[in-house]
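Narrative of activities, Objective 1.

The group set out to show that a structural description can be obtained from nothing but a protein's sequence at a throughput compatible with the screening campaign. Below is one input-output pair from the validation batch, recorded exactly as produced.
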Amino acid sequence: MPWFKVDDGLSFHPKVIAAGNAAMGLWVRAGAYCAAQLTDGRLPRAMLKPLGGRTRDAERLVECGLWETVDDGWAFRGWEDFQPTKAQVEADRRATADRVAAWRERRRNGGSNAPRNAVTSTVSNGSGTPAPTRPDPTRTTEKNTSSPATPATVTAPEEHLRAGLFDTFWAAYPRKVGKATARQAFDKAVRRTGNPARVIEGARRLAADPNLPEREFIPHPPTWLNRDGWEDEPFPARTNGRPPERPRTGSSVWSQVVGGEPQ
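Output recorded for this entry:
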């Protein structure tokens, strides 16, 4: 059975953050279904409900560029670039079957199996390298000591994704001042919280606040980021549908309303 492959940078990719957890849950289950059924990334509309999905989740994936709409349902974008296609999987299966048949024939004829074990699966998943096998907890394997083990390389995918995340934050924040400084402050905020989605969502809540004060009283992006502005409570309700009158500079009351002096 082929594997549905997911990159280790998935969790903080801008498209994934925009889609949200509900839609991404559908994306993962649908990916496993398409891999198992060899649909080349096409999900029939009839399978949406059995996979626990909702139409709005599918539409969200389309809006974020992860899926596209097709005649009978939806399809993963770029499936053939990241996942094994049906043709590749079937070709690998045929090649494996041929090797197994040849190995059995040699055994019947008294041949040796020493040169290579033809039973070993070589399904490549379309990547040119053998796919990992599912571990069997009932068996133990001996380590290969013929060559030193290659240490695992740990990557930090958030580094090359952070630029896209900042762009998402910048588009959401209601006052666009000091972009270069804001980029640095955003990077520090992400490192500090470990949750860029929380920072971005806070910016969206600020922009959508019906009691948002006049533009000049909205904190500069770096100021908001450096003081963990996403933790702020909503602004106080306006009086008679109007924002509070602007007080004199330095008013402690106004400082409480807008969260600080004008920037």
